[in-house]
Amino acid sequence: MWRFGAALIVLLAFQGEATAQNRGWIPWGEIGAQPPPRYGRPVPMPNRSRPAPISRSNADDDDDDNNSAFSNRRGGQLAAPRSAIQYPALLEGGPRPDISPRAPQSVAFRGYAQGAIVVDTSGRSLYYVTSTTSALRYPISVGRDGFTWKGVEKISRVQEWPDWHPPKEMRERDPRLPEKMTGGINNPLGAKALYLGNSLYRIHGTNDSKSIGYAASSGCFRMMNHHVAHLATLAGVGTTVHVLDKLPSNVAGTPAVEEEAPKPALRKPKRV
Q1: Radius of gyration of the chain from its Cα atoms, rounded to whole angstroms
Q2: Which superfamily is assigned to 6-32+43-255 in CATH?
Q3: Which pTM was predicted?
Q4: What is the pLDDT of residues 7-52, one digit of tens each?
Q5: Which of 165, 138, 117, 146 lies closest to 215 in space, CA to CA?
Q6: Within 13 Å, how many C-alpha atoms sit on residue 42's CB side?
Q7: Which one, of 22, 208, 194, lies nearest residue 119 by Cα?
Q8: CA distance readout (Å), 272 to 221, 267, 268
């Protein structure tokens, strides 16, 4: 009997190893040796003397993949990620499903031209100005400490299911990253990318809702796939993008509420 039990244990162990090998690479949301703590502390980041400027070359200007440890306070920042396994030089990004655009909430907004995009870094929000008095507000994630920037750029290109090319500096921090990952649902750049000027900074999608609302990237602005699909129906090449440290308090207001049609006056029933 004990021999049968020992043989069964060996068989189960072999099947587990084979399953792990067939599974392939780990999805970005699962990268990390340990699962995310339910109540963790913000992970300290390297202290940089000044924010990273807008890059005009292939410097550290691409977006990092997702992370496994994050602050328990929304609005905090995710630590610099590190892959759990060694990836091949060319990695397939997976299928490219149809993403239905989904509009976000409309809010009162003033001070910017209709058709402009305004990024509030500290507020983790991106606004698309729809009129002189209102804008659509998309929740986003922004650059981590040392990777934030501000300025004015124009959208120079819109790419559906973009390939991901981790730049040299990123692969030096984590040599196990691939040299290229093709576009797809598993690609950290998501369903669409709106490139900003001559830099490789971009507004792009993600299917990882856990990263939204945090400082999580190397300078890119990340939003849910259904939101970036919607934004791309409104903004295109030439759209002006204003990136601010903090949005002035008198610019954005409460959610815009449509005026209700007046209700008809109730008539008192006539006495018979």
Answers
A1: 23
A2: L,D-transpeptidase catalytic domain-like (2.40.440.10)
A3: 0.68
A4: 555 444 444 433 333 333 333 433 332 233 332 333 333 333 333 3
A5: 146
A6: 13
A7: 194
A8: 69, 15, 12
